[in-house]
Amino acid sequence: MLTGIVAASDRPSTTKQASSQSSLSGSEFAEYVSGMNSQNREQAIQKAVLDGNVPPFLSNLVPVSLNYKHANGSGGKVKVFVMPEYLAVGSDDNFLRVPMNLYTASTIATRLGFILPTRKIVNAIYQQSTVHFSPEPMQAGPQMRSTEYYQTHNNKIAEQWRKLRVKPGDLVSGHKKDVVLTKRLGVNPGKIAIYGWQRPNGEPIQPLSTVHGACYADYSHGIRLVSERVEVDGVAKSIYDVLKDPVLSQALSDEGPIPDLRDLLSAKPGESSCEKF
Question: How far apart are alpha carbons 40 and 53 in whole angstroms?
C-alpha cells in the first residue's frame, strides 16, 4: 500500500498490494467508470487507489529540494519527497491519470501519509523535473468533466511520453494543473485550489485559483502526492510542523506559514453537496 512515511536518510518507496480490483488496467478502469455520474466515479477512484491499484513506478518517490534562510541569515534546505507522476489507476504499461475533487484527493492523501503540494512545491517540481511535457488544452465546456475527456487527454500525454522516451519513475511535469493547498482555502471554504500547467517557458497557464467548488474536477487536473515526512537540513520532520513554522515554512510556501493545514485537508462535503456534480 502507498505510504508517505520516510526515514531521515531513506528514499521513500511505496508498495502495491493485490486487491479485488487491482487487476484493472487504466483503460479497463476508464471503461468501468464511463457510465457513472461524477459522484460515483469519485468513489470508484478512491476505492481503486486505496485498494492499491496504482502503477508500481509511482512507488518510488523523488526528492525535491527547496531552500530557506535561518534566523541568523545562513542558508538551509528542506527536501520533500514527491510522486514522479500524477496519481493514476492501473499498471506501469497501462494507466489512467485520474483527476479528482478536493475531498477525494484529501482523503487519499491523508489516509496514505501524504499531503497535496503548495504552489511553491509545484514550481520546484517543475524546475527539477527530468522531463517537461507541453500542455495540451482541450475544448472547454461541460464535456471537460467527462470520463471520455479524462481518457482522451491521458492518451495525448501518453503520446508525448513515447516521443520524449520517458522512463517510468522519471520526475515529469507540465501536463496537468495541480490541485494544491493554499491559505486561501481557509477563507474560502468549500473551494478547490488549482495551479500550474506550465508552458515550455515555465510560465503557468493556470494562476492560483479558488474559483471552483471543492466538488469540481476536470480533465486538466492532476493529483501529485507529497510525503508527510521531509528532511530539514538532513533531519526528518513532519511537513505539518515545517509549514506552520515561521522560518522553515519559507522553503515550502510563498504565502507564509500554514498552521491550519490539517483542517484544510480534513474538510468534508455537506450531505449531498456533491451530488449535482
Answer: 17
